[in-house]
Amino acid sequence: MAKATPIVGNSAPAAILAAGASALTSIVNKYKTRPYDTGISVNGNEIINQKVNGHKITTNYNQSEDEQNLMDYTNKNLLSGLENINVFSDELQKNIQNQVKAYTQQGIRTINETYNPMFRELKTDIASRFGNIDNSVFLDNLNEIEKNRTNAIETLTENILAKQSELYETEMNNRYNYLNQLSSINQNLYSNMFKFLQLAGYGSN
Fold first, then answer.
1. Which of 113-127, 128-142, 154-168 has the least mean pLDDT?
2. For 7-19, how does the pLDDT look when each residue is reduced to its tens digit (9 = 90+)?
3. Could you tell me if residue 122 is inside a domain?
4. Which of 15, 45, 137, 178 lies 20 to 30 A from 151 at CA?
């Protein structure tokens, strides 16, 4: 029978520990490199799916259908809105011109309702006092009324131009506000996605 070679001195415990550590490391490395899946779920819905295979990590963000539709909508309308920010359709321009026309007609109506009665009253007053309207009193008063009416018309003309500018400015402001809202929604969607991806990255470390 062969005899076992004795381990001399203090080398026996060290050899046993070294052998045990080597075996444990081998087991740990075996399971450490074994592929596995992980993820993040919210209310039963898997938001993040992650596959780990050694040092390779594949992460997928699972968008809901509503989230995907909203992102598609914001992306599409942001692009279209920016491309056509200064484009005014025939229908829109017609609508603005109709509003300007209505504003103009109202202004003219107001001027006529203000100054036409003045002309009639002046004629009646001068005719009753002098028997006719062919005199300097009538002409002086007529000129004063006509001067005020001319000023009112000039003011109306300025207001019409200002009204038209205001309508176009309001339309532009509405467009920019709409794009800002789309951009805000879009940024929130991406921010939410990146937060989950970042969280998944911490979990895989």
1. 128-142
2. 444 555 555 556 5
3. yes
4. 137
Sheet of 36-42, strands arranged across? 36-42, 45-53, 56-61
Instruction: Classify each residue of 135-147 as buried b or exposed e, where b means 16 or more C-beta atoms within 10 Å of its C-beta.
Output: eeebeebbeebee
DSSP letter assigned to residue 184 = H
Q: Which domain holds residue 170?
A: 82-194
CA distance 186 to 75: 7
Sign for the CA dihedral angle at 81, 84, 87, 93 comes to negative
Instruction: Report if residue 44 sits inside a domain.
Output: no
DSSP designation for 2: P
DSSP output for 104-137: HHHHHHHHHHHHHHHHHHHHHHHHHHHSSS-SHH
> 141-176: per-residue pLDDT in tens?
889 999 999 999 999 999 999 999 999 999 999 999
Q: How many structural domains compose the chain?
A: 1
Q: How far is CA 100 from CA 76, 89, 154, 156, in A?
A: 33, 17, 16, 12
Neighbours of 121 (CB within 10 A): 12
Contact between 168 and 96 (Cβ < 8 Å):
yes
Q: Does residue 73 form part of some domain?
A: no
Residue 183, domain member (yes or no): yes
